[in-house]
Specification:
The chain is an all-alpha fold and about 220 residues long. Helices cover about 80% and strands about 0% of the residues. Helix 1 runs antiparallel to helix 3 and helix 4 packs antiparallel against helix 6.
């Protein structure tokens, strides 16, 4: 029930965050310019959210065999998401996209680029531990939190706060996972501890790295 609810809530968050610039973009007075790359990116990431909801539903109904079959599609999708997420971050920065509330573009580029690394680690761990259901589902939720962060940053009540706002809000989902563990297990599951620490502690670290001279030089070369 908890993980199924989390999947639905995260999917709803993605729709809410990208409603103005993707899902209902054509209804906007001034539509956001969507390139072919952004269309592909949006479609693939949307497919991930649909698969997450489907996977939690299959498990809740005891359809483990179907869950495993769909999992192979999830692995392929995750690999493409890492490539697409990195490509979009670089091309958007190179095109001169500027944050209204946040660090300079080259500094901020470290957030999504290292975010893809965090996603890859968490998802990879989830795949390796797929036979340990308790660890697997926690790591899958934590991995998904990484890609939902972009949607959270676009919510009307969050976007004016920059990284402090969207990291703070997305971390509430980690808090919910901690509360769930305490309520059901009377302790924190090891996947929640280590996965949650990686997810949360990486956030300020990305901004620190992003502000460093070596990163600025690398990011300048990357977006040239």
């Amino acid at each position: 029930m908890f993980f199924g609810g989390m999947a639905i809530l995260l999917a709803a968050t993605v729709v809410a965050g990208f409603s103005r610039t993707y899902y209902f973009n054509d209804l906007a007075a001034t539509p956001f310019p969507l390139t072919p790359l952004l269309h592909i990116h949006g479609a693939v990431y949307s497919a991930w959210m649909l698969i997450l909801v489907a996977q939690t539903t299959l498990i809740s109904r005891g359809l483990v065999a179907w869950h495993r079959r769909l999992g192979f599609a999830g692995i392929a999708l995750a690999a493409s998401m890492i490539v697409l997420g990195t490509a979009v971050a670089i091309t958007r920065t190179a095109s001169g996209a500027i944050l209204d509330h946040g660090p300079p573009p080259l500094v901020f580029l470290a957030v999504p680029v290292f975010g893809m690394l965090v996603f890859a680690i968490l998802f990879g761990a989830a795949v390796l531990l797929r036979r340990q259901a308790a660890a697997h589902k926690r790591l899958m939720i934590l991995a998904t939190l990484e890609i939902v962060t972009a949607a959270v940053s676009r919510l009307p009540f969050v976007e004016d706060w920059g990284p402090i706002g969207f990291f703070g809000v997305i971390d509430l989902f980690v808090v919910a996972l901690v509360v769930h563990d305490r309520a059901t297990l009377k302790r924190l599951h090891v996947a929640t501890v280590w996965g949650g620490l990686l997810f949360v502690l990486s956030q300020p670290l990305r901004l620190i790295i992003g502000g460093s001279a070596p990163w600025i030089s690398f990011a300048t070369w990357l977006t040239a």
